[in-house]
Design a protein that fits this description.
The chain has 166 residues and is mainly α. It is 79% helix and 0% strand. It is built from seven helices and no strands.
Length: 166
């Protein structure tokens, strides 16, 4: 974390040097200096809230039991991997719990899909239902992803909270 702080301070110092040399009004200069700090702070807050939501989900103590629930976990982990991989904000990724890393998400998505197929075979002997189960799981995961991206009030952190039980 120390090197990240140093990097942030160097960026601020670079902005300050440019602003001092430029004929900008003080209010504009203040905005330019505070913007990188606010963006970093916001991403750290998003990561902190995702970590808390994940911990809340884990604390509930439930685990997927049916092929459908397992497939939904796979789809949720797949969406989370996409979120982490497409984040261009290193502070967000670095502030996430290890369990919420891209690498872990990839492994968890594959594991839950495999477990879903195995449970479905055990229950019915075939995988005829799999396409329907995956379709429903993907719809739920897409809705949770949209809530995250749109920062929907009350549901934005459903995705990492669900991952805590997966």
């Amino acid at each position: 974390m120390h090197s990240q702080e140093t990097k942030g301070f160097k960026e601020i110092e670079m902005h300050v040097k440019w602003i001092v040399k430029s004929p900008l009004p003080l209010a504009m200069a203040t905005l330019l200096i505070s913007a990188p700090i606010a963006a970093s702070s916001s991403q750290n807050e998003n990561a902190r809230r995702a970590n808390l939501a994940f911990a809340e989900g884990a604390a509930i103590g439930v685990s997927p039991m049916t092929p459908s629930e397992m497939a939904q976990c796979s789809a949720y982990w797949d969406r989370w991997k996409y979120i982490v991989d497409s984040s261009n904000i290193p502070q967000f990724n670095e502030a996430l719990r290890t369990e919420l890393s891209s690498n872990n998400a990839k492994k968890a998505a594959a594991r839950w899909l495999k477990l879903s197929k195995k449970a479905l075979r055990r229950r019915s002997g075939n995988l005829d239902e799999l396409a329907e189960i995956l379709g429903e799981s993907n719809e739920h995961a897409d809705a949770a992803y949209a809530n995250w991206v749109n920062d929907e009030m009350g549901t934005a952190y459903e995705l990492p909270r669900t991952l805590g039980s997966c």
